[in-house]
Amino acid sequence: MTGLDEHVESHSDSKHESELAASETDGVGTAYLAKSHLINQCLQNEVGFGRYQWELFILSGFGWLADNLWLQGVAIILPQVQIDLDPPRVEYITLSVYAGLITGATLFGSLADVIGRKPSWQITLFLTGVFGIAAGGALNFVALCSLVACIGFSVGGNLPVDGALFLEHIPQSHQWLLTFLSAFWSVGQLIASLIVWVYTMGCLTFAMFFCRYAIFQLQESSKFLAASGRDEEAIHVLQYIAKRNGRNITLTLEKLKAANPGASDYSENGSVASLLKKSFSVFSLEHVRPLFSTKMLFINSSLIILIWGTIGLAYPLFNGFLPLYLADKLHASSSTNQTYRDYSITSICGIPGSIVACILVDWTRKSGKFTIGGRKMALALSTILTGLFLFLFTTAKDEASDLGFSCAASFTQNAMYGVLYAYTPEVFPTPHRGTGDALCSAFNRITGLLAPVIKIITTSRDGGSSSIGANAPVFVSASLFMVAALLTVLLPIETAGKAAL
């Protein structure tokens, strides 16, 4: 008898009681819960982590890279746009990109729970590349803002899907790699600081899309298929991945169906048109209610969405205008090259943060009745340190201090985002993961939309300080990071050491 056979047999005896209790906590039905456990067993013990997942890791990383590439690319061109196009307020470009990000995150994240992860994963970078190339030829400020909004729409739908898709293809033993994807985030910022030109960024993004679509044969998530009642397709996906990894699986369609015979929690049948119509009304609460279905889920989902929103305002208040802050700090002795040099150094310092985050997310220790460490501790620690370094940045009096504190903040911010992007999809179950990620990402972008508004209010037309003070946006950013750290401590669910449903 195989390990999976034994799992199915032993599972059937006390199945109803244990699954019912788990489903009340996880917000999923017993049919999907049983299938998810079998798929997790198959991924861990038979499919393993091999060639397919390594390829998926790199290509999913392109999504992280593209997201920050364009966010920082927009920030980087602000000083030059101010010179070349003389707009009434250069911050309107940042407003445009965030307007697009909100729409894209909501739409594509929601679509992932209705028509699957694969379509959104493939099309987002294609659209980003097209609009990015077009933005390189914008002839005026209005055209540039319009195309930047389209870029935001495309790239904004990428991250809510990428993390979910990668998580659902890997065994529990390798879930820490979801944290390491944040290294691509810093690489994106570094590339943006070195390239600067939007034509080049558009072509680079299009090349990443080509690798995803034409070179790699992406499989739909087996967990999404099982949640949709498409058990046979789920088995085919597992068989394909196992074969790519040079392995075989013993999990069969009969065993998967036996986990909950005749039952299927979710079924997405119908034409493409009907599915699209349903996806546009996805916030009809079919995938939202389960995220708040119990007291623990309500508290955890509410807090994680609030944390995303708080960080969503804090991060762009500093990073979205960092080239402007650096240029203003250098002032009399400054040059554009010197500003971008310091910005590139700051970008490089963010990359090691991903490595530290990977070490911290699975580090846990028992202390009496309590367990310390894990995702929550790593997230709280990196967030509070980010706030501290930004407070110190506002007190800096020379270039060395400015650069040092911005580098330290870049390091801790990248560690923070690495943990946040790992914890969030882990805490949402597969049937509703896309919607949960979409809610977090959309709220993150909505609050981010306020960043340029605050920047406009607190600084004058020529970049000088208003009565509020030039450091006011950075001070607000630092304070918000501190608030986010406090909210993290209050999260009731820890995902370290647990297989994602």
From TrEMBL:
<keyword id="KW-1133">Transmembrane helix</keyword>
<feature type="transmembrane region" description="Helical">
    <location>
        <begin position="176"/>
        <end position="199"/>
    </location>
</feature>
<dbReference type="GO" id="GO:0022857">
    <property type="term" value="F:transmembrane transporter activity"/>
</dbReference>
<feature type="transmembrane region" description="Helical">
    <location>
        <begin position="56"/>
        <end position="78"/>
    </location>
</feature>
<feature type="transmembrane region" description="Helical">
    <location>
        <begin position="343"/>
        <end position="365"/>
    </location>
</feature>
<feature type="transmembrane region" description="Helical">
    <location>
        <begin position="377"/>
        <end position="396"/>
    </location>
</feature>
<feature type="transmembrane region" description="Helical">
    <location>
        <begin position="123"/>
        <end position="156"/>
    </location>
</feature>
<keyword id="KW-0812">Transmembrane</keyword>
<dbReference type="InterPro" id="IPR036259">
    <property type="entry name" value="MFS_trans_sf"/>
</dbReference>
<dbReference type="GO" id="GO:0016020">
    <property type="term" value="C:membrane"/>
</dbReference>
<feature type="transmembrane region" description="Helical">
    <location>
        <begin position="90"/>
        <end position="111"/>
    </location>
</feature>
<feature type="region of interest" description="Disordered">
    <location>
        <begin position="1"/>
        <end position="23"/>
    </location>
</feature>
<feature type="transmembrane region" description="Helical">
    <location>
        <begin position="474"/>
        <end position="493"/>
    </location>
</feature>
<protein>
    <submittedName>
        <fullName>MFS general substrate transporter</fullName>
    </submittedName>
</protein>
<feature type="transmembrane region" description="Helical">
    <location>
        <begin position="297"/>
        <end position="318"/>
    </location>
</feature>
<dbReference type="Pfam" id="PF07690">
    <property type="entry name" value="MFS_1"/>
</dbReference>
<dbReference type="InterPro" id="IPR020846">
    <property type="entry name" value="MFS_dom"/>
</dbReference>
<feature type="compositionally biased region" description="Basic and acidic residues">
    <location>
        <begin position="1"/>
        <end position="19"/>
    </location>
</feature>
<feature type="domain" description="Major facilitator superfamily (MFS) profile">
    <location>
        <begin position="53"/>
        <end position="496"/>
    </location>
</feature>
<keyword id="KW-0813">Transport</keyword>
<keyword id="KW-0472">Membrane</keyword>
<dbReference type="InterPro" id="IPR011701">
    <property type="entry name" value="MFS"/>
</dbReference>
